[in-house]
Every structure is written in structure tokens, then in C-alpha cells.
Amino acid sequence: MEITDEKIFKIALFTSLIGLVGMIIFSSYVEVKEVSIGDIDRSMIDEKVSITGIIDSIETSSSGKSVFISLNDGKNKISIMIFESVLAEFEDAGVDLNSYLNHKVKIYGTVTEYKSTMEIILDNSNSIKLDA
């Protein structure tokens, strides 16, 4: 049996299609890791996480293009960063961030480090939900 370029192409195409279908099917089973604020460290940078806590404060940056939220889980605090593009999503959805102040929320975002301090960056306007 002779292996030709055409056979190699068909095998590669078939393998790629199977991989793509598998990714689509199993992507719904991927879950964001739920952690407590105290467990967040440098080893988690660039990971997507879910945290729960009460929003203590909401402050707008001096430029007005970003917002800093302080989230407290009763033991630890972390800063949540919301950039201009995500703020525009909140505005478009008619959501006032101040309505979350002093409420328990669940936040989904990406762990980052800024000036040796761990923080979470909100990915989109669906990344913050009131928690019962």
C-alpha cells in the first residue's frame, strides 16, 4: 500500500474534523473553577475563576474608563477590575453597577496581578450575578 499526498490529506482532514466535533461536544462540560478569595495566588494567573462575596465598594478611575470593585468574602478581599469595553456592555444592557453595592454576588473572571497584588478582570457584563 502506497501512501500518497492525497491519502495523507484525507487522513489529516478526517482527523481535524473529528477533533473539532469533539471540542464542540465537550466544551459544554468545561466549568470555571470556583475558589475562595484566600486561595487565589500567582500560580492562578490567567486562569478563569469564579468567586463569591459581598461588594464593599465601587470606584471609578480618574479617567472614567474603568471601575474598581472591592469584593469581600468575610475573610479576604480582592479587587475586581472592569475595563471600558465591559462597562459599555453594562451600559447597553441598562445595568447600574451601583445596584450590586452591599450585595452578595458571584463573579467570573480572569486572575491577574497588578503591582504585586492579585486581582480579577471581568470578562463581560454577564460575569457578575447576584448570589442568593
Describe what this molecule looks like in 3D:
The protein is of the alpha+beta class. Helices cover 24% and strands 36% of the residues. The chain is built from two helices and seven strands. It has a five-stranded mixed β-barrel with strand order 2-3-4-6-5. The radius of gyration is 21 Å and the shape is elongated.
A few lines on this structure:
The protein is of the alpha+beta class. The protein is 24% helix and 36% strand.
Please give a handful of descriptors for the protein shown:
five-stranded mixed β-barrel, single chain, alpha+beta, 132 residues, 7 strands, OB fold (Dihydrolipoamide Acetyltransferase, E2P)
What integer is the average pLDDT? 87
Report helical residue fraction: 10-25%
Which class best fits the helix and strand makeup?
A: alpha+beta
CATH class of the largest domain: Mainly Beta
Query: Judging by the overall fold, what is the CATH architecture of the largest domain?
Result: Beta Barrel
What shape does the CA trace take? elongated
Radius of gyration: 21 Å
Total DSSP E strands: 7
Question: How many separate helices?
Answer: 2
CATH superfamily of the largest domain, by name, is Nucleic acid-binding proteins
H/E series, N to C?
HEEEEHEEE
Number of domains: 2
- How far the N terminus sits from the C terminus, by CA atoms, comes to 65 Å
Beta-strand share of residues: 35-45%
Which strand order does the major sheet show? 2-3-4-6-5
- Stretches where pLDDT is under 50 for at least 5 consecutive residues are none
**For the report, how would you describe the main beta sheet?**
5 strands, mixed, barrel
Q: What fold name goes in the CATH topology slot of the largest domain?
A: OB fold (Dihydrolipoamide Acetyltransferase, E2P)
GO molecular function: nucleic acid binding
Protein name: OB-fold nucleic acid binding domain protein
Pfam family, one: tRNA_anti-codon
Domain OB: 49-123
